[in-house]
TrEMBL record:
Superkingdom to which the source organism belongs: Bacteria
Protein name: Aminotransferase
One GO molecular-function entry: transaminase activity
UniProt keyword Transferase present: yes
Pfam families (UniProt xref): Aminotran_1_2 (PF00155)
Native species: Lactobacillus intestinalis DSM 6629
PANTHER family from the UniProt entry: AMINOTRANSFERASE, ASPARTATE AMINOTRANSFERASE
């Protein structure tokens, strides 16, 4: 096996990037025999049959050549129709939408395209630990805004308090329903945040990948309020259980989408033909597929909420996504890593330490209820036993 020559080096910026805390912990516990993992946001449900058949048909018909850089015409038109119907913003499929390799690539392309090294972007936390490493890689400054004291929501008051005295702040990364807390924002909360964004002349990169999975509330996109300032990101991973297809998209005003398209082309050239074919089918004939998934997840959410309540566990009741953010026992203080390790090794249940999601996550754990009903039942039973044993010691 070759070893790197002594006189060669690599990027200090990349070397200093910390691996995802979610993946680090998942790797630690994955080798435990018979462990039930509630760690990753990976739906256990399958992609709809008609969507899979569209991908297979694409392959069988030798749809294996470079697609247009921004995406196939049919896909961009389907995305445009879908966004017109769901968030009531009309995006020109020719110039205002780009199909990406998952929402992850869309986030990368947006941050690289929008900001200069002297600019700063705000990231409300706790949140999925992708946004600030990407900013770091792009050479952009960032500030993490702890929302724990406001029920894990970014308020208009806090946003204004942060931005009013710092002219370097040029953008806000906004993810909701939020991973890991499952919190959703009301229409009025979005309207108030939009006013602050306008007042201080900011961009918003909004990651609404979980917008189809809300429970008892209607999702309201900030793009509906301020489309001229918003880069809207979503995809098919969660709505249609298509994480492995890696199909996302980003939409926004033409002038900025021209720049994002350049970065997208340099990063990946274009997205995979068969994945685009599947996405066309999902967004054309499978719009209602996500409703069945949502019903399933809501039943699982209600089960987990009920079981945690019986245990006396404090948690944030989610209104969206498929996670529950739960407080660990007092005896652990804020050491969520130790609690999660103890639960994993003593009771074979894997959950993600809340500190992996940035400031405000300390002292919490994230449980994913995207697992099967059977796995959830066994995992919650084991967790209850663990907490009871801990109280008796």
């Amino acid at each position: 096996m070759p070893e790197l020559a002594d006189n060669l080096h690599f990027s200090e910026k990349v070397e200093n990037l910390k691996p995802s805390g979610i993946r680090i912990f998942d790797n630690k516990v994955s080798e435990i025999p018979n462990i039930i993992k509630l760690t990753l946001g990976e739906p256990d449900l399958n992609t709809p049959e008609h969507v899979k058949k569209a991908a297979v048909k694409s392959i069988e018909e030798n749809d294996s050549h470079y697609a247009p850089q921004k995406g196939k015409k049919e896909l961009l038109e389907a995305i445009s129709r879908f966004l017109d119907k769901t968030i009531h913003v009309k995006y020109d499929p020719k110039s205002e939408i780009v199909a990406t390799v998952g929402a992850t690539e869309a986030i990368n392309a947006a941050i690289f395209a929008l900001f200069n090294p002297e600019d700063k972007i705000l990231v409300p936390t706790p949140v999925f630990s992708l946004y600030w490493p990407v900013a770091n890689l792009a050479g952009v400054q960032y500030s993490l805004v702890n929302t724990a004291s406001d029920n894990f929501k970014l308020t208009a008051e806090k946003l204004e308090d942060v931005v009013k005295n710092d002219p370097t702040i040029k953008g806000l990364i906004f993810n909701y329903p939020t991973n890991p807390t499952g919190v959703e924002y009301s229409h009025e909360e979005i309207k108030q945040l939009a006013k602050i964004v306008e007042k201080y002349n900011l961009y918003v990169i909004t990651d609404e990948i979980y917008s189809s999975l809300t429970y008892g509330v209607e999702h309201y996109s900030i793009a509906t309020e301020i489309p001229e300032r918003t880069l809207y990101i979503s995809g098919l991973s969660k709505s249609h259980a298509m994480t492995g297809y890696r199909l996302g998209y980003i939409a926004g005003p033409k002038k900025v989408m021209d720049q994002i398209s350049k970065v997208h082309g340099l990063m990946v050239t274009t997205t995979t033909d068969s994945s685009q074919a599947a996405a066309i089918e999902a967004l054309t004939n499978g719009i209602d597929d996500s409703e069945e998934y949502k019903k399933n997840y809501q039943k699982r959410r209600d089960f987990v909420v009920n079981e945690l309540s019986k245990m006396g566990v404090e948690f944030v009741k989610p209104q969206g996504a498929f996670y529950i953010f739960a407080k660990i026992p007092e005896k652990y203080g804020t050491d969520d890593m130790q609690f999660a390790l103890d639960l994993a090794f003593k009771k074979k249940v894997g959950v993600t330490p809340g500190s992996a999601f940035g400031p405000g996550g300390e002292g919490y754990i994230r449980l994913s209820y995207a697992s099967s009903n059977e796995a959830l039942q066994v995992a919650l039973k084991r967790m209850g036993e663990f907490l009871k044993e801990g109280n008796e010691q």
